[in-house]
Design a protein that fits this description.
The chain is mainly alpha-helical. About 45% of the residues lie in helices and about 5% in strands. The protein contains 11 helices and 4 strands, in the order ααββαββαααααααα. A two-stranded antiparallel ribbon has the order 1-2.
Length: about 260
């Protein structure tokens, strides 16, 4: 396997096998939907640059010819990308700008960091990346292994959330926010297109109510675009060669949730 070219600011992530590499590429790459309203058109623009054409990447390194992925952290003053690894960016946003924003909310508190890291690793492998391991599996055995791990982990999370409001207890942490993006895409894309069809998130009472609570945290709903997810994922020619986009968007995140029953 040829060594992947990367920008100097971020070393290449070590990949264990070709199937995983394909999964992670598809997870991180921005797919331009066939139609985009004004609220989603900004999805491929940052600081006036078209990410799809890689201009932000070449502005950072003129010699760069590798993959263009999101998210990125862009420095408007120096006009360059300073990081393109989501797990590192979320930590930076958690604490590095406290002095500027005055917001000292801590989603990675020291007393539970080891548990957050443990959960992150399991959830990333089996859920966040697990759906891609299902959707892009190159063999029946690989698909079934990923499928079984995905739904075993979702069942564990459902049980955990039956006892406590959030993954680490009574306070939101980084682990919750890392799980959330996969949950809100699951029923509209992964369940059908990626063949993750044992259950929908809607079929898990605790996970579905938990997902709606996170969606309803002030400021979050404006960043979640279920219809865009349908258009985006079904525009992947490898998975949907006919290009037909489903008309429905089978999720309603604005419904009331019941998570207050687990308050401290």
């Amino acid at each position: 396997m040829a060594k992947e070219q990367v920008l100097r600011f971020k070393p290449a992530r070590r990949l264990e096998e070709v199937d995983d590499e394909h999964c992670e590429q598809m997870q991180e790459r921005e797919h331009r939907p066939r139609s985009c309203d004004d609220s989603t058109r900004r999805c491929d623009s940052q600081a006036g640059r078209d990410f799809r054409k890689g201009q932000a990447y070449t502005a950072t390194d003129k010699r760069y010819t590798g993959k263009v992925t999101v998210p990125t952290l862009w420095d408007k003053r120096s006009n360059r990308i300073v990081n393109n690894e989501s797990s590192e960016i979320i930590r930076m946003l958690n604490s590095e700008f406290n002095a500027i924003t005055g917001n000292t909310a801590d989603y990675y508190p020291a007393p539970v960091r080891a548990e957050i890291d443990r959960l992150n690793e399991r959830i990333y492998h089996n859920v966040n990346n697990g759906v891609y391991r299902c959707g892009f599996a190159k063999s029946q055995a690989a698909y079934e292994e990923a499928y079984d791990a995905l739904f075993a982990t979702l069942a564990e999370l459902e049980t955990r959330l039956s006892r406590q409001r959030y993954l680490l207890g009574h306070h939101l942490t980084e682990a919750d926010w890392r799980l959330f993006p996969t949950l809100v895409r699951f029923d509209v894309a992964y369940f059908s297109l990626f063949k993750c069809n044992e259950k929908r998130i809607a079929d898990y009472p605790n996970l579905s109510n938990y997902m709606r609570e996170l969606y309803q945290v002030p400021g979050v709903a404006a960043t979640v675009k279920p219809r865009y997810y349908v258009i985006n994922y079904y525009s992947i020619a490898k998975l949907n060669p006919t290009g037909i986009i489903p008309k429905g968007t089978p999720v309603d995140l604005g419904q009331p949730h019941d998570r207050a029953r687990l308050a401290a």
